[in-house]
Design brief:
Chain A is mostly helical and 516 residues long. Chain A has helices at 2-30, 40-74, 80-86, 95-108, 119-144, 147-155, 160-171, 173-189, 192-196, 202-212, 216-243, 263-294, 298-334, 339-347, 356-367, 376-400, 404-412, 417-428, 430-446, 449-454, 462-471, 479-498, 504-515, and strands at residues 75-76, 259-260. Chain A has a two-stranded parallel sheet. In chain A, 52% of the residues are buried. With 341 residues, chain B is α/β, with parallel strands linked by helices. In chain B, α2 (36-49) links the parallel β1 and β2. In chain B, α4 packs across α13. Chain B starts with a helix and ends with a helix. The chains are: A mainly alpha (516), B alpha/beta (341). At the A-B interface, α10, α13, α15, α20 and α21 of A face α1, β2, α3, α7 and α13 of B.
Amino acid sequence: MNSLVRFFIIICALIFISPVLALAGEALHALFATEARLSQELLIRYAGNSILLLLGSVGGAVFFGCFSAYLCSRFEFAGRRALLLLSLLPLAVPSYLVAYTWVDFLIAQGVHGGSLRNLPVTCLIFSLCLAPYVFLPTYGALTQVSASLSESARLLGKGPFRVFFLIELPLVRAAVFAGSLLAGMEVLADFGTVDFMAVDTWSTGIYRSWFGYGDRTRAALFSLLLFMFSGTLLFAEARLRERKNLAGRGRSASLVRRRPLPSALWFPSFLIAACPVLLGCLLPSLILFKSSFTDATAQLWTSTLMPAATTLIMASSAGVLVLLLGIVFVYALRFSFGRIWSSVVRLASLGYALPGGVIGIGFLVLLAPFSMTGSVVGLLLAYCVRFATIGVSTIEAGWSAIPRAYEEQARLLGRTQGGVIRSVSLPLLRKSLACVFILTCIDVIKELPATMLLRPFDFETLSIRTYNLASDERLAETAPSSLLMVVLSLAGILLAARFGAFSLTQTDQNGSANEN
Amino acid sequence: MKPIIFIAASLACFSASAVAQQEKKTVNVYTTRHYDADQKLAAEFQKKTGINVRIVQIKEPAQLLSRVIEEKEKSEADIIMTTDVGNLWRASEAGLFQPLSSTVVSKGVPSAFRDSGDLWTGLAMRVRLIAFNNQKVKPEQVARLENLTAPEFKGRLLVRSSNHVYNQSLAATLFAAIGRDGLLAWSKGVTANLARKPQGGDTDQIKAIAAGEGDVAIVNSYYVARLLDSQNNPDKELMKNISVVFPNQKDRGAHVNLSGAGITKHAKNVAEARLFIEFLVSPAGQEIFADASKEYPVRADAKAPAVLRQFGQPKLDLKGLALIGKHTPDAVRVLDEAGWR
């Protein structure tokens, strides 16, 4: 069985890496290209903007994410459990949709477009949308921090804020960094939002080279540079995680007890913590809801049904595939095949780090010889490469929480390796598996560029429909498809939370066990 | 096992429907257009001929061409249909087309709107015109694009980003008409007069005039037509104080751009593809373009969109049309130099 798994992983690794190789081959031509091209000054400006945007957006996401995480893990207050769940919801709304909705709404209220479409507002939008990426790991880590450290610091006379900044924040920095990294990769690879918000970033450079100058080779080169940048960050993060998970040490010791929140602070803190969900999810959804019933015609609604069905089928098929991939990959990590094999598996995470429109070209090159462009199978393959990381990271986290002894004992009692996986590991992992399925579904629902490039005949998804209407400057008519996207994703997130995807309930149990 | 069965079942559904469609006579269209008009055209053609029209739409022309190029002779595309004549030029440069060989097309469509090598034909046109606040600006002040660089318009111009193909093509025709230095001076002048950083789409420029952010904007004809024709009161309100002119009527004519189509080199359904293109340029097809997407028909005997007729028949810059594809990269470079984002 192990050799079968090895074989499978090699095949996958080849498939996963070949779009990048195709891209590299394409980029190589750029060295010999002589036509008109993007000037260096402009490239430097784009890079500078990207970095400012990255810092502003991730900084904002860290602020909102850490604030909510601190509030929910350290204080007891009315609405705490609701806030935990609410903090996840911005995941359901793609940032470009938040931008479309707010800008269109505010301009209709008489605000000048010139004061809306700029770098600070874009940073704000990303901060709101990406805050959950930081909130989730940080909250998880904060609930695991041992009480003894912070209590000692308190006894030595430090106030709660100094304790947080001097003791607790450094302890959970790996978690904060992991969340920031995901948020950052999303910001760097984004084009839809920044294009709409009139902010020129590195992605603008990629697409301007390709679409304006007709220079695909330099577009490939610039994407490869972006890929290397994100890849470096990703590996740095993995190293940081491997070295020592400081926060995880608190398990055996007593956990920090939640103190009641002073009532004067309740309203302002709740308001700050609820900013992402209010501005990044609930209010935009409300605006969409209103306009899909006032502006949209019945015909617009019925023509949204088919794309909705397609979206659901594709999302759930991709969900199952990423799930299966994740199991095989993490199996290889768990029953350590060796360092090289784990590096091979880590490669799978990198698909996330490329702008979808460009990695699409890699897929074209890969799929065309097999007549698989424009096939559902080819598209599903592309989703697997892009989202495999969800399966690997989620299942890895879940599996590492299961003591090895369970599997070893089953093995001693005469089960085969495969039998152990089937009858012991997978049943114990079912929550993680449900999460992988749902999280992948949500990402596929939002996915646009690869779907657009590789889609079969007469095939439309909700995100494509929304994008096409928006790019045809018919924002009001996007309401039904946007709303359906949000509703489907929201349903997914609530389901995932129900399955314990975000370990919110689990830590709650720890907390209450501690209180008893 | 359940998940695998589920995937297999859903794939089977997809492929079954594909097979069912394959048995009928079919034409496969790769298009960058995503207008309701195109759905209507396909449905009408299907009704008339019984030939099934299957569509893949990829918004970005460069990506669509990449797909056809990579698919090589295995490509299912019979027709490539795209907005912007520069893309038709690129497709023919890349050797993606075969001759149309249709007397219906060559008789129906004036030669200015067709490829000289018969590789593609124009289907419909949009004109880039100047919209202005008629309370503050007189039409003669904006009679030429060149006028927009005048100091009187400082802080009053509105235009979208040069990341968008509409402005890239406009710049390419200017590159052909007034040369590199002329274009550089013009785009620097425009950039200096901007009321705000280039942003949004064409409709956003019109909204910005209505909101008083600026007074003069460069926009495409069919957005104006759509707003004028809208059943939606706020949209109509928007156009209350806004008039439009076709620029450069006394010299080279207004900048015009084509949507067009050609039959691919590796088309499997050549006869059906030719029939479809012939339908698109037929009087009935041209009427749908004018009605549903408010584009100007290319046939001389077809009528302009009703709501645009009030502005008269524009003189068009036909010389620039043929050169758009060739000059776009150089023109974009000039726009970069001028700082037009």
